[in-house]
Automatic annotation (TrEMBL):
It comes from the Eukaryota. This is Cdc23 domain-containing protein. SMART domains: TPR (SM00028). It is found in: Nucleus. TPR repeats lie at residues 101-134, 494-527, 528-561, 562-595, 664-697. Residues 232-247 have a biased composition (Polar residues). Coiled coil: none annotated. It comes from Eragrostis curvula (weeping love grass). The keyword Repeat applies. Keywords: Nucleus, Repeat, TPR repeat. GO terms for cellular component: anaphase-promoting complex; cytoplasm. InterPro entries: TPR-like_helical_dom_sf, TPR_rpt.
Amino acid sequence: METLMVDRVHSSLRLFMHRNAVFLCERLCAQFPSETNVQLLATCYLHNNQPYAAYHILKGKKLPESRYLFALSCFRMNLLREAEETLCPVDEPNMEVPIGAPGHYLLGVIYRCTGRISAAAEQFTQALTLDPLLWAAYEELCILGVAEDADECFSEATALRLQQENTSTSCLENSNFANENRVLPSNVSSSLEDISPKQVKHLHANNMSEVPGYSHGRAAALHVQNSASSNVAQFDTPSPTATQTSGIMPPPLFRNAHAYQNTISGDAPTKQKANAANQPLRRKFLDEARLKRVSGRLFNQSSDSVPRRSLRLSRDTTINSNSNISQFGGNGTDHASGSRYEVIDEMCTDNIPAASSSISSADGRFFEQDKVERILSQDSKLAIGIRELLGLLRTLGEGFRLSCLFKCQEALEAYRKLPEQQFRTGWVLCQVGKAYFELVDYLEADHYFELAHRLSPCTLDGMDVYSTVLYHLNEEMRLSYLAQELISIDRLSPQAWCAVGNCFALRKDHETALKNFQRAVQLDSRFAYAHTLCGHEYSALEDYENSIKFYRCALQVDERHYNAWYGLGVVYLRQEKFEFAEHHFRRAFQINPRSSVLMCYLGMALHSLKRNEDALEMMEKAIFADKKNPLPKYQKALILLGLQRYPEALDELERLKEIAPHESSMYALMGKIYKQLNILDKAVFCFGIALDLKPPAADLAIIKSAMEKVHLPDELMEDDI
């Protein structure tokens, strides 16, 4: 009953019938209240999104599987301290983390959530050491910015280690199979049925010990194996020599089986038992020529010419009587004659199994050789498969690691090395889109995100960034359609509500956008980008206090979320807290050292601090990082204007005109420089173009005032244009 119920629970879990699994497992625990059954029930509760129920039944349990499931329940209930104490008890520092790699991974996630980055990185590294194929651990290390090169993590040494581990498991299985069919002495063969199930039990325990939440499945499997161990012998095909020691007749070697049965009939079974016991001694005294002659007679005679044993005995008796030797005499000659005929008779009857054994042994050697060849072939295929898998993970891992380090061009080159069937998947295409997004190449990012969404329309990861790409491209209609589509797929996903918020932000409806971003935060408080978007909207509404609050919340979730550092820098720059602004821009720049935008804003903060030379150097780096970005060119011209290096400023603005010919602020600044150079007609011309380009309302009054005072000597607007 217990085995049947366990099997039905696992079947229900496989078929995602979680309520049915919970019901059956509750009945199971009521009838058989073992801790392994409790673990299975906790697994059902976790699958059914009832971590509180799993927490209740697992509290106080000491088995490693129970501790892991309890810690997982605590983590889902946001009881991080209790989860950490369960995985790593303070009063028992020498206790190992349960379940191996998954336990270390969970502990690393807990450390990351509580801001202990170095401890988290250590746990993720330990998990990856125990299981090199645990991609989630390597992904977390990449996010933390401390992952080693994928070539080292998924190296050839790792492939050899995985191959050895799998080969050792395969060898253990083969040794168990061989133990069941090996020729054993009589005192060992009787215990064969007791040895084999124990070895199988040990094998399954090793294989299933690292599967969290399925410890009872292991116990159920062992229960089935132990219950069936008594029937192992009758279903296994025994080896030829083992059949001789057990008294079972081997398969006949004659073409005519009936003749063979006639040959061994009579008192042959009795003889066979006696001969089986003395077979090694008898073979020692058999002459090779005699064995060859007798064996030749056995295999060369037709089935009709093989006499029965009783006929040969009567024939031998007739021969003895014709030789005037009394059959019932007591002299030594009579006994010698009887012994001679008895030896021949034994040779005729007992060498049939011996010949069968020799041929069957040859067949066994051929079978063993064939099995070894199959094992070697399987090991070769396994080695090839391991190397192919690690090669794939190596390419994906290196691309993801470079993306997390914001080395986007190198990441794109790594992703392009993937085979076509792997490159054209939703995850890879989203990573490529994010790389182009960080490179401020929104058109290419749009292309790959759209392709990813088309191939995997129900994948929501990365769609928040896709909505931001459409926001920057002013694709209002497409952004609205994307938001509605994501909401229809999953209303409880933060990515969907971020898309809705970006849609309203594009329409300058910041209050409605803020409500949608806050909805995303409510759905997932660990979603850093939603916190940052809330901060952007508060900043747009000039509510800097709440803006700072949400930016800091984002950094509590992810310390390397450079967008939040950038947002804080912008707020402090607007508040004219230039030291704070420079600090936060520099922190963002340290995380993403290739961003032209961050370089530019850091240069602006330095310029505000009157560190003009440092500011110019930073602007040069920004221009070199992205020659298509107009902002650093404009800011460089402003700095040169402040240094009264007017010709250089005009040259920079002329280069800017080639990139952004319709920027009103650029023409207003050119007019201001021409005014300083006393080239008034060009100054008026530039101010006129700036007004024609319909500048923002805040700049419109400044440009008009400067244009009206252009002919007045030494009259220049003090406000920045």
